[in-house]
């Protein structure tokens, strides 16, 4: 009997041998500090020449923007450049590819997780959970991919530095905000490393609970503004989108024209020279492919709606020029509406451009990345591949266009509000990284987080300086005629 038990124990031990213990994973993370100490993160790599848009390493931010434009709708490039030129922070929002190049040029920890890929403070926001609670989480996954955890953290830290500069905060005030972000991240990743796995998989930040917790730390008028903003977010749904984007024509809804940011399919087919029936066929193929990516239960929800109109809709800053469709559907009566967004998914900027993509379908990359990083997601999230109006096959991901979605307004934040927001951004990012990778290894590398925080405060300031120079290079390129631009 004893021999049988011993044999069984040995077999079970072999089953678990491929998975190190939490202590072993923390130790592995701590060992990385011998190769890449925290202080090594303080400065960006390959510092550019201030006298030129290109440095001795060939770094030219304008060239990166030009290269991205070759795969985008030409008629929208001037709008994209104009939106990016509005401010250094607006430039930063559209410059994920530039920062990805910079991050690849610097040493990294090699401690990988699923990354957001464009982790800045405006990409943490509000959305509805399936049971209709309002949650705070990451809300943009166009660039999601696997990579070193610190890439997301660095991008988030630099975004707070730029937002603080735009608000006129003093250097020491900005440093305190970024320190709050980083210590919050380190504390949250440590908690995550000790949290039961299933509990962490569904850990959520409820917006109402957050407001109840921090209300006493805000001035009454600020707290009231935040509460009103959250209440307004609950009104951002498909019905609100239809009211803003469509008119009733002949008893049915039709998207109105507001070129170049909203152009109905009926006008695009005229512009591209294909007949209306062909355009409708391609939209139908897109929706059929999308349906096949849903679970059967969610596909049955989609089946209860019918398409009434389709339009091209420009959104954001960095996404301008990619193909983004909105599809208007009705269900049980004309007031039962659903607006879906089908957004083109190109290769993640985090992937090295000289290597094949790790993903056969870029829409699937976005969907799988979002599902890994979020505790709860859109029940209608899916993906498809379809031939567009220009005859080219492209990948898309599809989601609800508005489902209580909202984002922060850093241009209105006081110092205390931004500091609190930084704390929550740290928690959100840490939980996402814990779901997408191994929290124990990350926590082992960070230790108490203080040395890493000091290094990234310096990094954020240095990278914000670089971004301001890159923004100036963009403005110069527009002024000289190298790039077209229109006012946003």
UniProtKB/TrEMBL annotation:
Pfam families for this protein: DUF2252 (PF10009)
Biased composition (Basic and acidic residues): 21-44
Annotated spans, Disordered: 1-58
PANTHER family the record matches: DUF2252 DOMAIN-CONTAINING PROTEIN
Protein name, as recorded: DUF2252 domain-containing protein
Source organism of this protein record: Agromyces intestinalis
Phylogenetic lineage: Bacteria, Bacillati, Actinomycetota, Actinomycetes, Micrococcales
